[in-house]
Amino acid sequence: MERLNALGLTEHKTFTAPWPTIPEQRYAAFVRGFLDGDGCISLHTNKRIAPSVRFSWVSASRPLIVGLSDWLKSVDVRHGLYAYGRYWRLRVGEQRSAARLGGLLYPSSDVPALARKRAKYELWLSGR
What we know:
By secondary structure, the chain is an alpha+beta fold. Helices cover about 45% and strands about 25% of the residues. The protein is built from 6 helices and 4 strands. A hairpin with a 2-residue loop joins strand 3 (about 80-85) and strand 4 (about 85-90). The radius of gyration is 16 Å and the shape is globular.
């Protein structure tokens, strides 16, 4: 275990994973990967209003989800952060913020991303 710790791996990372220290221009790519792994894009329809999109993440790591919250604040994306016992949920549901976030996460069609999640955002974007 000491050797793994020396490489930067820690025990119980589910609860302790930190927000990464990476160049600022890489955060959108990291968040896109975080969304692909531990997040969700959902579409909501209501007959009286236009369809809406919501981005959400769930994590047991407070440092990781707070880091995400801090980054979203820094790029002017409104969101909610909620605690559920030992787990955290972060949601971006306000449509202007969702559009801003989507533009950051999917700046072009060639960035690596999970196709089924990107497709939901693109479907919403095409119907706006």
